[in-house]
């Protein structure tokens, strides 16, 4: 399982791009994790699924609300990662008003979740293999803090916790 001090696993995530530009076309675009994190501080939070209750009511809104504070604390980008396809993540991002604040990154086949070892098996609930709920602060591709939730919990992966860690990292 991924831990503090580890480099993020190699691989890619997809993001649905609304506006063509900056070398990206409209629709799903694939981003290499290593290249996308190089030289940057990224606040990553992962969750079991788009449009699910805790994720939609608390997790994403907290990061949207604290986006400016996270950026003031030295965070270059905020990523929401979920085992959903880029089309679903794009639509959910529009619903959650994440534009310019949180990048909605799709891990459609759960490859990133599996590579981190932070998976959650929800097969019995008809949802298959998903990502566990967690947050992490990543600096130049290396995990500086990692907050993994217990089963069914939402206590340590919230935006306020990661904001405090980003401030401590900057100090």
Supply the key terms.
alpha+beta; seven-stranded mixed β-sheet; 31% helix; single chain; Glutaredoxin; 171 residues; two-stranded antiparallel ribbon; 6 helices
Notes on the structure:
The protein is built from six helices and nine strands. The chain has helices spanning 33-37, 53-65, 67-72, 86-96, 111-116, 159-170; strands spanning 12-17, 27-32, 41-47, 77-82, 103-106, 119-122, 128-131, 134-139, 142-148. 31% of the residues lie in helices and 29% in strands. The chain has 171 residues and is α+β, with helices and mostly antiparallel strands. The protein has a single domain (12-170), classed as Glutaredoxin (3-Layer(aba) Sandwich). Strand 8 and strand 9 form a beta hairpin. It has a seven-stranded mixed sheet. The protein has a two-stranded antiparallel sheet with strand order 6-7.
Provide a brief overview of the structure.
This protein has helices at 33-37, 53-65, 67-72, 86-96, 111-116, 159-170, and strands at 12-17, 27-32, 41-47, 77-82, 103-106, 119-122, 128-131, 134-139, 142-148. By secondary structure, it is of the alpha+beta class.
């Amino acid at each position: 399982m991924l831990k503090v001090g580890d480099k993020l696993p190699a691989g890619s995530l997809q993001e649905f791009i609304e506006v063509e530009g900056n070398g990206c076309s409209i629709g799903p675009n694939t981003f290499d994790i290593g290249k996308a994190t190089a030289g940057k501080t990224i606040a990553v939070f992962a969750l079991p699924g788009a449009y699910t209750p805790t994720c939609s009511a608390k997790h994403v809104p907290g990061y949207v609300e604290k986006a400016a504070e996270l950026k003031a604390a030295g965070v270059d980008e905020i990523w929401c990662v979920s085992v959903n396809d880029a089309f679903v993540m794009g639509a959910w991002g529009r619903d959650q008003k994440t534009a310019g604040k949180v990048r909605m990154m799709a891990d459609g086949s759960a490859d990133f979740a599996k590579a981190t070892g932070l998976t959650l098996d929800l097969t019995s609930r008809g949802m298959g293999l998903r990502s566990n709920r967690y947050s992490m602060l990543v600096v130049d591709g290396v995990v500086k803090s990692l907050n993994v939730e217990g089963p069914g919990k939402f206590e340590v992966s919230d935006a306020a916790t990661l904001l405090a860690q980003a401030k401590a990292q900057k100090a």
